[in-house]
Every structure is written in structure tokens, then in C-alpha cells.
Write a structure and sequence with these properties.
The chain is of the alpha/beta class. It is built from 19 helices and 21 strands. Among the domains are: about 110 residues, Conserved carboxylase domain (Cyclin A, domain 1), CATH 1.10.472; about 30 residues, no CATH class; about 70 residues, RNA polymerase II/Efflux pump adaptor protein, barrel-sandwich hybrid domain (OB fold (Dihydrolipoamide Acetyltransferase, E2P)). Strand 6, helix 7 and strand 7 form a beta-alpha-beta unit. The strands form 5 sheets. An 8-stranded parallel beta sheet has the order 2-9-8-7-6-5-4-3. A 4-stranded antiparallel beta sheet has the order 14-21-19-16, with no helix packed on it. Strands 18-17-15-20 form a 4-stranded antiparallel beta sheet. About 40% of the residues lie in helices and about 15% in strands.
């Protein structure tokens, strides 16, 4: 009996980049490895989307559209290229209005993409309807997603095989067009038995020719066993990666999966020798990049507090930047409670960031003393319906701190069209008004504008940069100054009383009581309301100046933290009396940013 050939997608050039380098990889560096992958017989690759879209503009000084064009040119017309989208967030971290959701599909089709994998972290099917319809409308394959994870110990009510099958039935009942179905476990925490039962049940619901896919990370060391469970349960395809971006926070390795399928009824139908050659080319391409050690580790505690591989290193690198990495273990422990009380949204971007930021605040500020705005919006319903109702007390705290009521309607209905707003920004800055530029502004906001104006800052972490700095010769010590001549004056204290002492050139000494010091008045404090940083992060852009008049909720500054950009808004109306930070500064939670009076 012939073996079933398991399809697979090589995620090295998107999820691998995100899970190890925070998606900060230059196109010139990795394209040779893409060609080697094609030569090895790999015909399906992940080529962008997710964090790889914004990161190119934010950190690499490149256009993601140019990258996709070059990727397509490198692989030729026949290789399947796939990107990742976040439902109504598409490739941003905030919701996109309907016109931008449509433009996303149109632009990705134009720039060489074959398939868009489309998920919603809350598994709110409403968030997949319009986005899926537009992906299909523009001629792309729509891979609709059900998001998976295991809950922390003691939690029940969602994320069971039955829960996922219910979501699959909702997708089918909603008439969402799709080419394939993916069950996506961004944290790699779903136990293999649940994975098997989910695929076994799903295969009975859909037609025989419906393609079922499984995606996971190897963060907890479960990736190979999860893949085996999925394949045996009825999955047609899985996600894999190559050395050096496989295992750990990334996808399981291709070679390891070939080995695990030996003696079964399944095969990847690959020549391992060609995969070795492609892996060697990839290692050569990545040799200059800094690999955070935690990216290559197995982290068993992730099964207790699901942290996705694609966010783990982004969070730890941010904690390195803010000098708080020593708190990581405490934050991961606190995530368990944050997930338990937050309604069980799947720990995948952007919800994983909400969880981590709230856990960080609970550790550094005290439990629930400060609600992260995005976490608060989630429990209040502004991102859609959570799988179960969040804890009522947490909802109350969020509503009081954010000054917002609970929201139960469709999030898309409260978003203003994005194209007119982006067009105005382009026109005001005398930039070409094109579909690409509109989408860049809509999805990347200020950093997108900085890129288009030629003001992008490249921030790639390479070991070669560190070595170059280390090899610079130390500055020569300045020649010692000649000993002073003439009288020398000192002040000494005896029995708490200061004396002025003069030593003459001949060695004579004179001493006299010192005059009492005149107290210096401390600078007068600026009266007003202090605006503090809600989370640790980097100051991206100051939006106001001293003397500006602001209203309640006027944006004051853009902060970047744990892969997310967010505006800090004024808590009151008044005048900006003081600005305590500058663009490029790193701040801790509760650091003063502004004073409003």
C-alpha cells in the first residue's frame, strides 16, 4: 500500500524570522536561501504577512511590497507563496476598517501572493467573514483558521476539541468562502490527544477533498508529537522549518519530521540530502544574526502559561531593552491568571501581547492596579466576543479605569473608512497617492509615514555589529596633568564641622571654620496632572509640545512595546506644561511622560 504524502509549508522565511529575530531580517540576506529551498524541491513557502509586514518598515528600512515582489521573482511563477493575516486586523495590531481590509487582499494579490491564512485570536467568526470574503473576491486562496491552545491548569469552558468543532460549524454556517482550513496553535501547547480528536472530528464534518492543515510551534517540545497526532487524525498538511530557524520557538524541523514518519503510513516525499544542502545555505545566510538563547530552548512552563513562539522573543528582547529581563519568569507565571480571567482568547498576536503586557503590569504595579488599555478593550468587547465571558470584576475594573462601557456590537461598525484618512496624510506630506502608500499609512501609521519620507531607522540585531564595536581600539589615556603648583585649597570635616584648609607651596597649612552653606532652593514642582507610561517601551513619536492645548483623550505620544504601537492619551483637558521624554527614549511603566495643567 502506498503511503499518503503529507503536504507541508516551509515557514522559515516568515514565522522563523518572527519567532527568532522579531521579524527583523533584510531581504538581501535571506534571498540566496530561498533559491536553495526551491532547488531542494520545496514548493510551498510562507513569504510574509503577520509581523513581517510592519517589521520591514519599522526596523529594516524596506518595503514589504518590494520584498514580496523579490520573493516571487526568486521562486518563479509556480511556487505557492502564503502570508498571514489577523482577521479584521489584517497585518496591523489594531482593527482595520472595511476599505483597508479590501485593499489588503487586493495588494497582496498584486504582489505575488497565492494564499492568505486568516485567523482571529478570539475565534469570533464575525471577524473572519468580511476579511475572508475579500480574500476570495480578489482571487487568492483563503485558508480560514481556528486558533488553538491549551488552557492554564484549572481552567475550563473553551479550547477543547468540541469547542473547535463548534467554531468550524459556525464558519461553515456563515458561508465564509475558503480554500482550506487550518487549526493554528501559536503557543505549541495543545496536547496531542486533543489535536488528534479535533482533526478526527473535523474530517467527519467536511468533504473528502477539503484540505485540513495544522500549524504549531516547538516551544514546549511538543511539535513533532502534535504533528503526528494531526496527520493521524486526518490533516493533509503541516508547517515545518529548516535549520537554523526550526525547533524551539519556531516550527518543528523538516528533517526531524521525515525521521518521525518512518515506519508509518505517511511520508513527506523529500530527499533529505537536498534539504541538508538548503539548510546549510540558510545557516550561511543567517550567520551574522543574533540568536536570543531562549529562541532555541524548550520551555516546559509555556504549557502552564501559553506564550506563542512568535511573541516570546519579541517580549524578551523588549525586556532586555528596558532592563527588566529578570522579571520574565514572574510575568510568565502571572500570565496564567491573566488568561484565566480574560475570557480565553487564544494566545496569538495581538491577544498574546495583551496578556503579556497585563501580566507585566500585575508584576510591576500590583495585581490589577493598572489595566493595559488593549487588554481592557478586549475584556470590554471592542475586539469582538471572547470565547467565554471575562471575569465580571475584571470587566468592572477595566470599565472604570478606561472610562468605557461594555461593547457588544460588531467592531467593524465603529471604524471610520481608512482610505480617505491615509490619502489626506499622503497629500499633506506631498507623497504619491498610490494603493501601496495608502495601505502603508493605514497599517503602519507614523512609522509608515517615516519610511515614505525617507526617515526610517534600521534596527537589525547582528553579532557582526557587536563584534565591530568590541574591536574598536580603546581611546588612549590622556597624559597625566602636571601636579598643581601654588597654594591648594581643601574642605575637611571634623566632628561634623567643616573647615577650609590651605596648603602652601612650601608645605605650610592654614585652617579656618568654613562659612555655613547657603541652602539652595529646590526647583518648584510643575503643578498639574502627570501622565505616566502604561507599559515599558520605546518612545516612537511625541505628538504635542509644551504650551499645546489638549482635550480629554487627545493623543500625546506613540509608544512601542512588545511588538505593539499604541497612543497614550491625555486623561484631562488642559495645557501641556511639561514634556518629560524624547523620541527614542526607553521608559518603564509609570515613568512620567507629560504634565497637563
Amino acid at each position: 500500500m502506498s503511503k499518503k504524502v503529507v503536504q507541508f509549508m516551509d515557514t522559515s522565511f516568515r514565522d522563523g524570522f518572527q519567532s527568532v529575530f522579531g521579524a527583523r531580517v533584510l531581504t538581501d540576506d535571506f534571498l540566496p536561501a530561498v533559491k536553495a529551498s526551491v532547488d531542494a524541491g520545496i514548493t510551498n513557502m510562507e513569504a510574509g504577512g503577520g509581523a513581517r509586514f510592519q517589521s520591514l518598515f519599522f526596523y529594516c528600512g524596506e518595503s514589504a511590497f518590494d520584498m514580496m515582489d523579490r520573493f516571487r521573482a526568486e521562486v518563479g511563477p509556480d511556487i505557492a507563496l502564503q502570508t498571514l493575516a489577523r482577521g479584521i486586523n489584517v497585518v496591523a495590531l489594531s482593527q482595520a476598517p472595511r476599505d483597508i481590509i479590501d485593499l489588503h487582499a487586493k495588494m497582496f494579490k498584486k504582489h505575488g501572493i497565492t494564499t492568505i491564512r486568516n485567523f482571529d485570536a478570539l475565534n469570533d467568526v464575525r471577524n473572519l467573514e468580511y476579511s475572508g470574503e475579500r480574500i476570495d473576491h480578489h482571487g487568492l486562496n483563503h485558508q480560514v483558521v481556528i486558533s488553538m491552545m491549551d488552557l492554564p491548569p484549572g481552567c475550563t469552558g473553551a479550547h477543547t476539541a468540541e469547542f473547535y468543532i463548534d467554531r468550524l460549524k459556525q464558519i461553515i454556517a456563515a458561508g465564509i468562502p475558503f480554500h482550506s482550513i487550518c487549526f493554528k496553535d501559536a503557543s505549541g501547547t495543545s496536547n496531542p490527544e486533543k489535536v488528534y480528536n479535533t482533526f478526527k472530528a473535523a474530517r467527519k464534518i467536511v468533504s473528502e477533498d477539503t484540505i485540513l492543515w495544522f500549524h504549531t510551534h516547538d516551544t514546549a517540545g511538543l511539535g513533532i508529537s502534535q504533528n503526528l497526532a494531526a496527520v493521524k487524525g486526518g490533516a493533509d498538511g503541516i508547517d515545518l522549518a529548516k535549520i537554523p530557524l526550526s525547533g524551539g520557538t519556531c516550527q518543528p524541523d523538516i528533517l526531524s519530521m521525515i525521521h518521525a514518519l518512518k515506519g508509518t503510513d505517511f511520508t513527506l516525499d523529500l530527499d533529505y540530502r537536498k534539504i541538508l544542502v538548503a539548510s546549510e545555505a540558510f545557516e550561511e545566510a543567517m550567520k551574522d544574526y543574533f540568536f536570543p538563547p531562549e529562541a532555541k530552548m524548550v520551555s516546559p512552563t509555556v504549557t502552564l502559561s501559553p506564550m506563542p513562539g512568535g511573541a516570546l522573543t519579541a517580549n524578551t528582547m523588549m525586556m532586555r531593552d528596558t532592563g527588566t529581563l529578570h522579571l520574565y519568569a514572574d510575568v510568565i507565571k502571572e500570565m496564567s491568571e491573566v488568561v484565566r480571567l480574560g475570557g480565553f482568547g487564544t494566545s496569538v498576536t495581538p491577544v498574546s501581547q495583551f496578556y503579556f503586557q497585563q501580566a507585566y503590569l500585575n508584576v510591576t504595579q500590583g495585581k490589577w492596579k493598572k489595566i493595559n488599555p488593549s487588554y481592557g478593550d478586549m475584556v470590554l468587547g471592542y475586539f469582538g466576543r471572547t470565547p467565554v465571558a471575562p471575569d465580571p470584576e475584571i470587566v468592572k475594573i477595566a470599565s472604570e479605569q478606561l472610562g468605557k462601557p461594555v461593547f457588544t456590537d460588531d467592531p467593524l461598525d465603529i471604524l471610520e473608512p481608512g482610505i480617505p484618512k491615509a490619502t489626506k496624510i499622503l497629500e499633506n506630506n506631498k507623497l504619491p497617492v498610490s494603493d501601496e502608500n495608502i495601505f502603508i499609512i493605514a497599517s503602519c501609521e507614523q512609522k509608515g509615514l517615516d519610511f515614505l519620507l525617507g526617515n526610517a531607522i534600521t534596527n537589525i540585531r547582528k553579532i557582526t555589529d557587536e563584534k565591530a564595536a568590541a574591536k574598536q581600539p580603546a581611546p588612549k589615556a590622556a597624559a597625566a596633568a602636571p601636579a598643581p603648583v601654588g597654594p591648594r585649597d581643601y574642605t575637611i570635616t571634623v566632628n561634623n564641622r567643616p573647615y577650609n584648609v590651605t596648603v602652601s607651596e612650601a608645605g605650610g597649612i592654614q585652617a579656618a571654620p568654613a562659612a555655613a552653606a547657603v541652602p539652595v532652593a529646590a526647583p518648584a514642582a510643575v503643578a498639574g496632572t502627570d501622565v505616566e507610561a502604561p507599559t515599558p517601551g520605546n518612545v516612537v513619536k511625541i505628538l504635542v509640545e509644551v504650551g499645546d492645548t489638549v482635550e480629554t483623550d487627545s493623543p500625546l505620544v506613540v509608544l512601542e512595546a512588545m511588538k505593539m504601537e499604541s497612543e497614550v492619551k491625555s486623561p484631562c483637558a488642559g495645557k501641556v506644561l511639561a514634556v518629560h521624554v524624547s523620541a527614542g527614549d526607553t521608559v518603564q511603566a509609570s515613568d512620567p511622560l507629560f504634565t497637563i495643567g
